[in-house]
Amino acid sequence: MWMRAARALRALRRGVLLLPLALTALALLLLPRPPPLEPSPRSPSPPAPAPPREEQHLQTSIIEKEEVIEHDEDDVARRPWYMRGGEQRPKHSDPNEGLFPEDAPGDDRVVQQLMYTLPKDETVPVKKILLANGLGAWGVPAGRTEFIRNKCPVDRCSLTADARDAATADAILYKDHHTPFNIKRPPNQIWILYYLECPYHTASLRPSSLNVFNWTSTYRRDSDIVAPYERWVYHDPLVTEKELDKNYAANKTKKVAWFVSNCHARNRRLQYARQLAKYIPVDIYGACGSHHCPRTDPNCLEMLDREYKFYLAFENSNCRDYITEKFFVNGLQHNVLPIVMGARASEYAAAAPHNSYIHVEEFAGPEELASYLRRLDEDDTLYNSYFKWKGTGEFINTYFFCRVCAMVHANERRQRSAHYTDVQAWWRDAACTRGEWRATERDTRDNG
Ligand SMILES: *[C@@H]1O[C@H](CO)[C@@H](O)[C@H](O)[C@H]1NC(C)=O
Ligand SMILES: *[C@@H]1O[C@H](CO)[C@@H](O)[C@H](O)[C@H]1NC(C)=O
């Protein structure tokens, strides 16, 4: 109990520290910076605040298995319920504890939402949640099953897809589109807009739909219910590295690999990769390159792990917080060092394990990046420093519907009322850039 409190306090302090640190890191990134001469890893970025989700993991890594053996089972059981083997159930029932965006600016609050519960001694009415796009869009059954089978700490909710429930539902969840039900909206009904894709790939809403949503649920960290592609959580937020028991550079003869099929991404990633290829070998697999190996073939991923040192985890769009499986799965869950392009450098720092990747905007351009990669290629110690995060935590199941249920109850308990006056402006304005982020930061500075 005291340990949890101490941890929460630390997490809180870290949250307060996070913003200035991120700004400092960004400022440092904006300075022209020669590749460091000492074999030291990049300047430390603040560890991401601890939090959670379960996804099928494409690969159960060897390291994680070892770790379970290393720790005794008690240690694993003491982890929170949303981690593998964890049994700690939440005790907090204070709805004011860091659940909503205004409670913790910059934080995604996923862990706090997973650790919220209701007072044990009260009978709480079941909240009805209407899925406007049907059950199939979410792959969940009607009723309370989803909450019970996942052992949600707050499970007093029921799912429905029946349009007749629109008059009485406590919340309505809209996925990608807003098709209003032809029913007068009850006063306390919460409307939630969910987007999986980035703004370039979501449809515009009708003008009459702009000011009707109370909450958003997207990968963006300032959404009310953040739904990240993956969520990394340290087992102990103070332990962000461990000693390696293998050499990740061993036997690798190739440099940079990239699996890509869309050759016309908005952020000109292909042009960047081609520039990079002038200074270091880049093997492009798929429609935009000359190498072939279907990504779905497990041998391809095995080859990636065995032969390549670097992987281009370039998103197709540079949008705020937009970091997908390309990074989390293709990159981090393999034995290659991901080179990233997509969200801002500070946003990767907040979402990724410590020292686990290289952001293209840390370098003036492809030539400078290539020369740093060549240095890593020659220095196994430096290269391996990017893998020390492995085994210090896990990508969790973020139990989306558990959190929706918790939030609907918490909102009522604290009698909170909020809505987006223009949800499209929130979603789109300044959210994406066709060029580099540092150019937009400069523009903002000049204009401001
Ligand atoms: C490298 O190759 C050697 C010899 O084939 C093998 O014993 C070793 O396990 C390999 N190392 C890695 C990290 O794959
Ligand atoms: C939801 O949003 C509407 C406006 O769109 C507002 O009138 C209502 O008070 C909000 N309700 C809650 C519970 O936030």
Automatic annotation (TrEMBL):
It is found in: Golgi apparatus, Golgi stack membrane. It comes from the Eukaryota. One of its GO terms (molecular function) is fucosyltransferase activity. Residues 37-51 have a biased composition (Pro residues). SUPFAM superfamilies: UDP-Glycosyltransferase/glycogen phosphorylase. Residues 250-426 form the Fucosyltransferase C-terminal domain. Residues 1-27 form the signal peptide. One of its GO terms (cellular component) is Golgi cisterna membrane. Its main location: Golgi. InterPro entries: Glyco_tran_10_C (IPR055270), Glyco_tran_10_N (IPR031481), Glyco_trans_10 (IPR001503), GT10-like_C_sf (IPR038577). Residues 86-95 have a biased composition (Basic and acidic residues). Pfam families: Glyco_tran_10_N, Glyco_transf_10. Its EC number is 2.4.1.-. Residues 37-58, 85-106 are annotated as: Disordered. It is an enzyme of class 2 (transferase). Pathway: Protein modification; protein glycosylation. Residues 141-229 form the Fucosyltransferase N-terminal domain. It is a single-pass type II membrane protein. Keywords: Glycoprotein, Glycosyltransferase, Golgi apparatus, Membrane, Signal, Signal-anchor, Transferase, Transmembrane, Transmembrane helix. Belongs to the glycosyltransferase 10 family. This is Fucosyltransferase. The gene is LOC113520291.
